[in-house]
Amino acid sequence: MANILDFIKWRGDIPFQNLPVGEVDALILSYLSYMRYEGLVGEDVLGEGVRVADAASALLEREERARNSMSYSLKDDARLLALLVSSERFGEARLVGYVNRVDQETEKQFSAVTLLLGDGTAFISFRGTDNTVVGWKEDFNMSFETAVPAQLEAVAYLRHVSAQIDRPLILGGHSKGGNLAAYAGMFVQDEVRERIVEVYNFDGPGFNETVTASPAFSRVDMRIHTFVPHSSMIGILLWHHEPFTVVRSDGVGVFQHNAYTWQVMGGRFVTVSARTSNSHFADDTLKRWLRSLTPQMRRQTIDGIYALLNVSDGQRVGELFDARSVLGIVRSAGSMDEETRDALLESFRLLGDALVEAVPGWIDRTASDIRHRVTGDRRALEAPADAQEPGAQPEAQAPAGEQEEKTREDA
Questions:
Q1: Span 193-209, mean pLDDT?
Q2: What is each CA distance from 182 to 137, 322, 388, in whole angstroms?
Q3: Which residue has the higher pLDDT, 344 or 410?
């Protein structure tokens, strides 16, 4: 099935002046924040910036793993960059204001870049979680912190960019980047928020209960467009109030988080009416678990696990699986202090309880899915082969907006 690479082939010759940013454009522009622009794009927002085509060409000359901070597919990244080099639509956009800040002491991983588009808008693209251990730790901190450092940086970055350029603003991000885009839109000052046209969150986690209950949460709510794949495991984390648009993906399970697996038809995503029973099961289990943990217990659990991982001295997630790192983690677990060990054991016990409690709902949804599938197959077999008149056009798929998952997540 077609994906974002095919979309660039189809629409790559149409400038943004002639066709404004749509949902698929927004995913591509959000994904560009993962690229490593060190030595190519500076932090300065003023000035002409660097053409996306020129940056893509320069990145292609680098070693594969030096191009992207969190590559989901090195081959697809290479294809994407090659397409951007020759694309009028994306290649002529200009990159400015690239920042990349990782700080282990404050447990912060933040990166963003701004794209100046030909239609006069500015797309502020927030990077999702990269492959640093501290980046993943910060993600988990969202479950108990009212604001993690990256979220505060996102607000400051939006404020800085908006003060430098006088353009309508579109915010977007994939994974944690989508969460940062939404958070920045909520908590920036009113005069900047009024310039925000839309906010795109692509399979980004939601927020903890404190944030969703705050008055700020509703300030930009109706401008947030949240997209998740049909078996989403990442975008359903924590709490959302805005409706989802559910996208069909070629991936399996958690690998649907990969933006290259999202199906595209024409200028929009291919959508389905609801998420899978497995996605709902993961969502239900994790929310039950989090509700059973106080904020302090959440902190103890996450800090305890992070302390174990930190023993290995691995800075990147892949380094944790080295034999020496695994051995160090095992040894550290054996010498863990009693208070931390008890907190972890209690937390995992509660996770087990949440799993058991969520099973009946998963069974009901799975059975319902099977019934609908069987019913649909039976109707297809019973339908006469000549039911459609010669020359008649097949029924068009409903627009994505009509297939949004209308129910809001339980607050």
A1: 93
A2: 20, 36, 46
A3: 344
Closest by alpha carbon to 245, among 126, 402, 127, 128?
402
**Interatomic CA distance for residues 92 and 51, integer angstroms:** 6
CA 99 to the chain's CA centroid: 19
**Confidence band (pLDDT; 50, 70, 90) for 388?**
very low
In angstroms, the CA 94 to CA 246 distance is: 31
Q: What's the confidence (pLDDT) of residue 208?
A: 83
Helix axis angle for 23-31 and 176-187, nearest 10°, is 110
Residue pair 140/293 in contact (Cβ under 8 Å)? The answer is no
DSSP string, 2-29: --HHHHHHHHTTS-TTTS---HHHHHHH
Rounded Cα distance between 43 and 162, Å, is 14
E strands, 118-249, in order: 122-126, 169-174, 196-202, 224-229, 244-247
- CB half-sphere exposure, 226, CA atoms < 13 A: 33
Tokens for 99, please give them.
């920042």
How far lies 274's CA from each of 21, 246, 371, 402, 404, in Å?
Answer: 25, 6, 15, 12, 8
- Six-digit token string for 159: 């404020």
Pairwise CA distance, residues 338 & 358, whole Å: 30
**Mean pLDDT confidence for 244-256:** 91
The mean per-residue pLDDT over the stretch 24-32 comes to: 98
Q: DSSP labels for 157-190? A: HHHHHHHH--S-EEEEEETHHHHHHHHHHHHS-H
What does the alpha-carbon distance between residue 355 and residue 84 come to, in Å, rounded to a whole number?
Answer: 45
The residue assigned the tokens 């700020």 is 216
Burial of 2-35, coded b for 16+ CB within 10 Å and e otherwise, reads ebbbebbeebbeebbeeeebebbbbbbbbbbbbb
